[in-house]
Automatic annotation (TrEMBL):
Domain UspA residue range list: 4-136
Family named by the database record: Belongs to the universal stress protein A family.
The protein's name in its UniProt record: UspA domain-containing protein
Pfam families the record matches: Usp
Organism: Paraburkholderia piptadeniae
Lineage: Bacteria, Pseudomonadati, Pseudomonadota, Betaproteobacteria, Burkholderiales
Amino acid sequence: MIPFKRILLCYDGTPEGRRALRSGAALAHQLGAETHLLSVVDSSWWSSGYDVLSSMAFEIDEQAARNVLSDGIERLSACGVNATGHFCVGDPVDRIATMADKLRADLIVIGHHHLGPFARWWTGERHAQLLDRVGCGILFEVSPDSTP
């Protein structure tokens, strides 16, 4: 029996994201798992107004996220993994949880970004929120060069 038949990889192009992508690709390849790659534009930090500048910022962020998604698909393909790409806009925790539920994922693979104590206090513990929202396993990858 294959423990993980459907894997959702979350990719943002950061060193931690690339490490998570490599680990997820190796696991998906070994297990022959159905693989999905998700790129999310975090809409929580930019203005929600309708002025020209916020519209331009969104278009730039959206294109960058689509480029990251394409890069991730290419990296997975180079590892021998065929993945379906998904692009979303919104709060990353919400979008990841929703996509994992929609796909009925058995495992989510995501990079972990180290935060200092103040940043963790200010932003809250987002990983805990994700853990509370999903009904599958989560593998957090940490890049060795990003340790505090």
